[in-house]
């Protein structure tokens, strides 16, 4: 089975890389770009039957730093 | 005073740290590979700077899970001194031994220069050889030194005097210009600036030396 994990910065945590991307889009003429937040996408190949609780544990222990990041799990 | 330096794959300040410890304590530290599970009998454990695991995932995140870190955590809980510099500070926040996180510098640039620091608290063993409020100059060299914690955490560590070094000018966007903090019991210090790179005149400054001297003094006085 596969699981997808999306790691994003919490609201209120400054994202200088997202800001730089936003500025680059603006300078390319994409005036629509108002704000950019950058995150991570992690694809996991897991043993069949792995519980969501186990994947949560992976997120809390390693994949995300919950001081600054949120995570969202999608099981394919 | 006996010491050890933990070496991770990608550490690059481990030898500078070893030289500083040897120069000031008079004894060569044990160099401990991160795969080890047992620490030698030492008083001070240093986590050096560098780019352990290539900063993959997040700075310090993979190293924080290294086998030796369980032993470092236990040693810290027993009151041994733990000094994390630069990547070592990042590893300490990732293990939860220190609060907060170190994020990409606000200006996105790698910052590599001497910076002025204010010594905010001289009541720790690490800072006992400095004068309160003194400005010292220590080099920084990092891309991810932008200290972040939520407001409650910031207020708490400030109130408890746990911010021991503060940048005297904005260096990397760190909240409240925090450059170094200690844990609740004062035996774990994490700091982005490199005191081991300022221990003799040939390095351009000696303000880092007193950090190690303070530690040595803690053992002489004990």
From TrEMBL, chain A:
The keyword Nucleotide-binding applies. It comes from Sphingosinicella microcystinivorans. GO terms for biological process: 'de novo' IMP biosynthetic process. The lineage of its organism: Bacteria, Pseudomonadati, Pseudomonadota, Alphaproteobacteria, Sphingomonadales. One of its GO terms (molecular function) is phosphoribosylformylglycinamidine synthase activity. Its main location: cytoplasm. Part of the FGAM synthase complex composed of 1 PurL, 1 PurQ and 2 PurS subunits. Belongs to the PurS family. This is Phosphoribosylformylglycinamidine synthase subunit PurS.
